[in-house]
């Protein structure tokens, strides 16, 4: 499986996405993460994309994913922390997707490390 979804005792949902990852994998991970957020009444989502490579993704696909993410979240106050991929193009794709989410009202930010992301997410 190209992703994992879990609830952490620190009160956030963690999604880890690895390559190779298909469009369907991304949407399945999103569905599971949002369902877990709802079950746990959790409004914090940490998305670890450090090992993601987006070479097979289009910019239109990144836009659509960010738009759907923003539309499908139950909580308008959902706080989303992204851990950026190491590869430059993938990093730019994630930042673009995050901007799409932010432009639709989500509180979102990008980080280089898990520690930075957790600190912001739990603040």
What does this structure look like?
With 123 residues, the protein is α/β, with parallel strands linked by helices. The chain has four helices and five strands; from the N terminus they run ββαβαβαβα. It has helices at 23-40, 59-72, 88-103, 114-122; strands spanning 3-8, 12-17, 44-48, 79-83, 107-111. It has a five-stranded mixed β-sheet with strand order 1-2-3-4-5, sandwiched between helices. Strand 3 (44-48), helix 2 (59-72) and strand 4 (79-83) form a beta-alpha-beta unit. The longest helix is centred in the first third of the chain and has 18 residues, at 23-40.
Shape: globular
Rg over CA atoms, rounded to whole Å, is 13 Å
Oligomer description: single chain
Poorly predicted segments: none
* Proportion of helical residues: 40-55%
CATH class assignment: Alpha Beta
- CATH topology tier name: Transcription Regulator spoIIAA
How does the major sheet shape up?
5 strands, mixed
Count structural domains. 1
Descriptive key words:
5-stranded mixed beta sheet; 46% helix; Transcription Regulator spoIIAA; globular
Q: What is the topological layout?
A:
Blueprint: E1 3-8, E2 12-17, H1 23-40, E3 44-48, H2 59-72, E4 79-83, H3 88-103, E5 107-111, H4 114-122
Parallel strand pairs: 2-3, 3-4, 4-5
Antiparallel strand pairs: 1-2
Helix pairs in contact: 1-2, 2-3
Summarize the structure.
By secondary structure, the protein is α/β, with parallel strands linked by helices. 46% of the residues lie in helices and 22% in strands. It has a 5-stranded mixed sheet with strand order 1-2-3-4-5, with helices on both faces.
